[in-house]
């Protein structure tokens, strides 16, 4: 079994157990047993739940990036990338819901997930052709994180096969972020010396 197959099988088992038992009661050892995987290999590749979450997030990114197109406006490419990530998460939805319910009681996991989400959104922006260096890059990342979190709330409640409700919310969120970016660019052009706080997130220009 390849490392990729091993990781995929263990992650799937872990999220199934989380859906049944809750995230706190799910263990890597139990997930390995559930998937019929050697415990020693599970310990080596996933020393804890935080490692599992990091690998899960990376796997969602990889699936989204593998299906990413290179044509069209930035907003359309970001829509496809983020929906690709939601599509990749769909088989794990019940386990993800269990994780989200657990996070208020686990600040370390919440912080780790926050950092991983920022890294994922940086990848999504770069894949769409948007730079993420400097202040404007940070604004783009913050803006896309906000878009992702808003759409994620819809994903949590969306039990449809085609994720139509999630798509609608994501489209609206990207539209508002695009409008905010356009406003910000215009405001800077008119008032180049204004040092006040940005009123919106600069996701794309």
Q: What are the defining features of this structure?
A:
mainly alpha; 205 residues
Describe the structure.
The chain is mainly alpha-helical and 205 residues long. The protein is built from nine helices and no strands. It has helices spanning 3-21, 28-35, 39-45, 49-66, 74-89, 93-102, 107-127, 134-157, 164-190. Helix 1 (3-21) crosses helix 2 (28-35), helix 4 packs across helix 5 and helix 5 (74-89) packs antiparallel against helix 9 (164-190). The protein is globular and about 50 Å long. The N and C termini lie far apart (45 Å).
Task: Give a quick precis of the structure.
The chain is mainly α and 205 residues long.
Decide which structural class fits the backbone: mainly alpha
Q: Write the element-wise H/E pattern from the N-terminal end onward.
A: HHHHHHHHH
- Rg, Cα atoms, Å: 19 Å
Which parts are unreliable, with pLDDT below 50 for 5 consecutive residues or more? 187-200
Q: Strand share of the residues?
A: under 5%
Q: Tell me the number of helical segments per DSSP (H or I, 4 or more residues long).
A: 9
Main sheet summary: none
Overall geometry comes to globular
By DSSP, the count of extended strands is 0
Helix content class: over 70%
| End-to-end C-alpha gap | 45 Å
Averaged pLDDT = 88
């Amino acid at each position: 079994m390849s490392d990729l197959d091993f990781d995929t099988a263990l992650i799937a088992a872990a999220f199934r157990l989380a859906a049944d038992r809750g995230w706190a009661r799910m263990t890597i050892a139990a997930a390995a047993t559930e998937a019929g995987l050697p415990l020693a290999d599970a310990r080596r590749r996933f020393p804890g739940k935080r490692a599992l979450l990091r690998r899960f997030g990376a796997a969602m990114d990889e699936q989204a990036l593998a299906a990413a197109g290179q044509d069209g406006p930035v907003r359309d490419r970001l829509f496809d990338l983020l929906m690709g990530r939601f599509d990749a998460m769909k088989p794990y939805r019940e386990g993800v819901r269990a994780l989200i319910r657990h996070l208020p009681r686990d600040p370390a996991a919440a912080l780790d997930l926050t950092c991983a989400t920022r890294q994922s959104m940086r990848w999504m922006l770069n894949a769409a052709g948007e730079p993420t260096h400097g202040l404007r890059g940070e604004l783009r990342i913050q803006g896309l994180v906000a878009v992702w979190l808003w759409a994620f709330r819809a994903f949590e409640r969306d039990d449809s096969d085609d994720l139509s409700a999630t798509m609608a919310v994501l489209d609206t969120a990207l539209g508002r972020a695009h409008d905010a970016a356009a406003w910000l660019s215009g405001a800077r052009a008119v008032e180049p010396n204004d040092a006040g706080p940005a009123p919106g997130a600069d996701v794309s220009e």
